[in-house]
């Protein structure tokens, strides 16, 4: 006899395959969600790590900026101190020079002539004075020319003196100061 199966095996097979499909679909969704979670966690960890590195670099940069500012301040102070020391050394080096210049001015001063005003600007000395005659002024200029401390005397004005000093001539003269070649040897 022929066996006839009256059970709806096709529907059962289809329902079973549908259940397997749904289970596989749910499994794939769970696996995809797990992989997505792992990917997001990894990405968040990388972002946090990079942010911590950025924060470290920013802190190091701020520290270096403060150190650079401190170094610049120290360099500025050092330069100021060096310039002050240079000024002091220049003043100490020139201290005996001014004494020698005044000594030489007295030595070049001829009789019958006197100074009323002296002004020094850099290496130029402006002299105002009175002389008994113009020949005394000429003598002063010659002595300035022969001096080892002065050069280029320039007479700018000669005029008659006021009534109090009748017979005198007022004069304005400028002369350049020079350092003699033997200055360094004399100080040693």
TrEMBL record:
Spans traversing the lipid bilayer: 21-39
InterPro entries on file: Extracell_DNA_Util/SecSys_Comp, PilN
Keywords of this entry: Coiled coil, Membrane, Transmembrane, Transmembrane helix
Pfam families: PilN (PF05137)
Coiled coil start-end: 57-91
BP-aspect Gene Ontology terms: type IV pilus assembly; type IV pilus-dependent motility
Protein name: Pilus assembly protein PilN
Organism placement in taxonomy: Bacteria, Pseudomonadati, Pseudomonadota, Gammaproteobacteria, Pseudomonadales
């Amino acid at each position: 006899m022929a066996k006839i199966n009256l059970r709806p095996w096709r529907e059962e097979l289809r329902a079973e395959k549908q259940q397997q499909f749904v289970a596989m679909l749910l499994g794939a969704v769970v696996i995809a969600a797990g992989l997505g979670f792992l990917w997001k966690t990894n990405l968040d960890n990388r972002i946090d790590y990079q942010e911590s590195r950025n924060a470290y670099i920013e802190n190091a940069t701020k520290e270096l900026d403060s150190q650079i500012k401190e170094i610049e301040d120290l360099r500025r102070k050092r330069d100021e101190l060096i310039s002050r020391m240079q000024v002091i050394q220049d003043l100490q080096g020139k201290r005996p020079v001014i004494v020698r210049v005044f000594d030489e001015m007295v030595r070049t001063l001829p009789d019958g002539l006197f100074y009323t005003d002296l002004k020094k600007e850099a290496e130029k000395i402006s002299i105002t004075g009175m002389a008994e005659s113009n020949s005394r002024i000429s003598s002063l200029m010659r002595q300035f020319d022969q001096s080892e401390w002065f050069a280029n005397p320039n007479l700018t004005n000669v005029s008659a003196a006021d009534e109090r000093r009748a017979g005198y001539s007022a004069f304005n003269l400028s002369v350049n100061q020079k350092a003699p070649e033997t200055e360094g040897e004399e100080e040693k």
